[in-house]
Design goal:
The protein is an alpha+beta fold. It contains 2 helices and 4 strands, in the order E-H-E-E-H-E. The longest helix has 18 residues.
């Protein structure tokens, strides 16, 4: 499985209340269940008008299919090819 960062333009998402976020997660989970095991949701970061989601997927096509099924746009999809953090400086 490859790792992807998905940017989703969702106007006002940063103002969603707990119930609205719960509903969005349930909608996403429903689409993921239809696509399993091709795609997995790891986590998402919410900003004012976008979410940035971390997914594991077989390929970019699986991400597009999740977007289609869930109704959440995949504005930009970027494959992660590596990762660094503060401990990388000590290596």
């Amino acid at each position: 499985m490859k790792k992807y960062v998905i940017e989703r333009a969702i106007p006002g998402v940063g103002q969603f209340n707990g119930e609205q976020l719960k509903g969005a997660a349930a909608t996403s989970n429903g689409a993921l269940a239809q696509l399993a095991p091709k795609v997995q949701w790891v986590q998402s970061y919410v900003s004012a008008n976008k979410t940035f989601c971390i997914y594991l997927a077989e390929d970019e096509a699986a991400i597009h299919e999740h977007a289609r099924l869930s109704g959440f746009p995949a504005t930009a999809i970027t494959e992660v090819t590596g990762m660094i953090d503060p401990t990388t400086a000590r290596a």
